């Protein structure tokens, strides 16, 4: 890993966001730097204001974080790690508030959707906020015991709120996968289980994708993710994003990537990094 210069890791959101939790869990040695947007978090690393960026790519309940797939290849940054973070949702309120005093819960739409059962059971009205930690901040500022927030325990800690109910999410396996991004690639083999992420476009020939994928099957390479998305809003320009288990220097991975290059017009590796211990 490259030497840290600023001692900071950038994330999108307010202090107390789940991305902040990911920074604390995966890089406790670094100071977390909140940024307004994903682009701002990437820019902070590019400008040297932070050494790394922590970016969410997918959630087990809601699927991929859409913007990120477009930003990653254009960012000029490289993936040097991944972090799986268990998203526990908590009901946070002003200190001393009782659950029966609360009438409404504020959070990001996604989190409100993940706690429908609890909200229905307690007759709580949903109030849409810009994000989770921002909602906790608003609850702290408003000083109204009738309004609570759905957020992380870290957000409660930061904004001085009480946890009225813990882990109230409908699905008990709710997990978000984050990628740790750096200005410099690190392709050293630093774990037994390594991952490789790359993007590619196939050549305009019949069954090109099928042929391009064939090399991974015949060489026994496990592809854990393959997604397509349009480039520049153009229906004909499709880029594919893939994660595979293994290191580019592994004999079977090397053969599979050689075969892939034959059927693609462009292919670039976004990162080689250790698999998170919590990866299935």
From TrEMBL:
**Residues in Prephenate dehydratase domain copies:** 8-183
Origin superkingdom: Bacteria
EC category name: lyase
Alphabetically sorted, this entry's keywords are: Amino-acid biosynthesis, Aromatic amino acid biosynthesis, Lyase, Phenylalanine biosynthesis
Catalytic activity, per the record?
A: prephenate + H(+) = 3-phenylpyruvate + CO2 + H2O
The record's Gene Ontology cellular component field reads: cytoplasm
Residues annotated as domain ACT: 197-274
Any keyword Amino-acid biosynthesis?
A: yes
Q: Provide the GO biological process annotations.
A: L-phenylalanine biosynthetic process
* Entry annotated with the keyword Nuclease: no
Annotated positions for site Essential for prephenate dehydratase activity: 176
Protein's pathway: Amino-acid biosynthesis; L-phenylalanine biosynthesis; phenylpyruvate from prephenate: step 1/1
Q: Which CDD domains match?
A: ACT_CM-PDT (cd04905), PBP2_Ct-PDT_like (cd13631)
One annotated GO molecular function: prephenate dehydratase activity
InterPro entries listed in its UniProt record: ACT-like_dom_sf, ACT_dom, Chor_mutase/pphenate_deHydtase, Preph_deHydtase, Preph_deHydtase_CS
Enzyme Commission (EC) number: 4.2.1.51
Name it.
Answer: prephenate dehydratase
Q: Which organism is it from?
A: Phaeovulum veldkampii DSM 11550
């Amino acid at each position: 890993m490259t030497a840290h210069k600023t001692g900071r890791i950038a994330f999108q959101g307010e202090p107390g966001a789940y991305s902040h939790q990911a920074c604390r869990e995966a890089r406790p040695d670094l100071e977390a730097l909140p940024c307004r947007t994903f682009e701002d978090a990437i820019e902070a690393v590019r400008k040297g204001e932070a050494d790394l960026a922590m970016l969410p790519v997918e959630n087990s309940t809601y699927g991929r974080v859409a913007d990120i797939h477009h930003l990653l290849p254009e960012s000029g940054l490289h993936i040097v790690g991944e972090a799986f973070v268990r998203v526990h949702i908590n009901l946070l309120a002003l200190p001393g508030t009782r659950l029966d005093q609360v009438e409404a819960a504020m959070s990001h739409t996604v989190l409100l959707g993940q706690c429908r059962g609890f909200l229905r059971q307690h007759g709580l009205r949903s109030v849409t906020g810009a994000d989770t930690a921002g909602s906790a901040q608003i609850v702290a500022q408003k000083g109204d015991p009738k309004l609570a927030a759905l957020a992380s325990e870290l957000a409660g800690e930061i904004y001085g709120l009480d946890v009225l109910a813990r882990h109230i999410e409908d699905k008990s396996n709710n997990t978000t996968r984050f990628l740790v991004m750096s200005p410099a690639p690190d392709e050293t083999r630093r774990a037994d289980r390594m991952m490789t992420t790359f993007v590619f476009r196939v050549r305009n020939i019949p069954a090109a994708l099928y042929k391009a994928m064939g090399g991974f099957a015949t060489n026994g390479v496990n592809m854990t993710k393959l997604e397509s998305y349009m480039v520049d809003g153009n229906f004909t320009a499709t880029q594919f994003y893939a994660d595979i288990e293994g290191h580019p220097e592994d004999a079977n991975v090397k053969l599979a990537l050689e075969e892939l290059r034959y059927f693609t017009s462009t292919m670039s590796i976004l990162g080689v990094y250790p698999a998170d211990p919590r990866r299935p």
